[in-house]
Protein 1
Amino acid sequence: MPVLVWDIQPTDELALDKYEGCPRFYRKETLLVCINSEHVEAMVYVMNSGRPLGTPSRTYFNTILQGYLSLGFDIEILNAVAQNSLQTR
């Protein structure tokens, strides 16, 4: 799955926390990732245990789709994940 790493400011993180429903729906974890042969820490949102999986809203899906298209990511990966979410409901 394609990944995009952003350098964010504290105000960005607060806005993302609100958008992602952190800490109620998602929690933040830190991962070590390799970017251009350099290891850096990256914060990610992970769904909390016990939360039911759901289908993304059309608005959320379209936001992610626009990101995929603007970055040249393979949208078939996104479509497959979305299709899987419909089948696991």
Note: Helices lie at 10-20, 58-71, 75-87.
Protein 2
Amino acid sequence: MGIATAAHVVDQSHDWGEPIRIHHAASGPPVLLPATHRAILLDEKKDTATIVLSSAGLSLPSLPSLPDTPLDLVPPSGYLRIGVEIGWLGYPAAVSTALCFFRGTISAWLGDEYLVDGVAINGVSGGPGFVVGTNSVPYLMGLVSAYIPNRARGETLPGLSVVRDLSHLHDTLQALKSLEEAKKKETVGVSGIPSGEAVPTPKLS
């Protein structure tokens, strides 16, 4: 199973082999997923990441019961038009610890990301962006990456949110058959240690 998020949300855990907190709102308290039960595939240029979980990780005590059927991705054959309304979810830590819903309209398509007329508050990074299709079924279309405020007059004024396209993950997810395969695709972080390994505790003299 793969969980998509923004690269800047998990890059430190990737670099240092740190645990990742997983919070499925419907399942209760969050739990920590150790480095040995996951692989992180980063695309820093697109600010996207895929967290691949093992079957062993899914059976850890108290791990959230994730949905059996995830949202389908928007087909990679095109992009959403300007003016289409989308929604996104996240935890705006600066305002509330509750899971919040946001919405806005697409203002521009820049080739691999959307500019959206809507607010992305600090803490919502990595939240899923989705669009409702003609069949009334929601499709995952992107991830919240950033908010660009308008500072034309010096003060901070309403700006645009950046939602990264996820169509490139189609091939990535279809090619992965196991956690072992995912770990082979991981890069070495700034610590010099593959992200699938925990940072060793230094010996004290």
Note: The helical segments are 7-16, 55-58, 169-175, 179-184.
